[in-house]
Amino acid sequence: MDEWNGDIGKLEAKLDNASDDTKQELKHQLSKAYNARDAVAKKINDLQEAGDDSWHEAKGDVENAWNAFKDSVKHFKSQL
User: Fold this and answer.
1) Burial letters 19-51, b for 16+ CB under 10 A, else e
2) Dist CA 46 CA 44 (whole Å)
3) Each residue's pLDDT tens digit, 21-68
4) Contact, 9 vs 76, CB < 8 A?
5) How far apart are CA 17 and CA 42, in angstroms?
6) How many angstroms separate the CA atoms of 32 and 69, rounded?
7) What are the C-alpha distances in Å from 56 to residues 52, 67, 73?
8) Alpha helices, DSSP H, located in 17-54
């Protein structure tokens, strides 16, 4: 999580050099990245608490949340 927060922080720092219009769009994308990160954290917590029966379902949820986070960060980077 610390690494993810660091990655988002680095991207957020790049906003200072963006135009006002770009900043507005990127702030929206950054919000999506934060939301996706929070979803990953929740899913990881759920996975840690999951019993053997629900582990496979929780694992899939974590993978989906992680992919959403990566996509958000990737899209944000492409806009800078």
Assistant:
1) eeeeeeebeebbebbbebbebbeebbebbeebe
2) 5
3) 888 878 887 888 888 888 888 877 877 777 666 777 777 777 888 888
4) no
5) 32
6) 8
7) 8, 17, 26
8) 20-49
Tokens of 58: 């929780």
CA atoms within 13 Å, Cβ hemisphere of 52: 0
- The predicted model scores a pTM of 0.58
Q: Which of 78, 69, 77 is nearest to 5 (CA)?
A: 69
69 CB contacts (<8 Å, ≥6 apart)? Answer: 4, 33, 36, 37, 39, 40
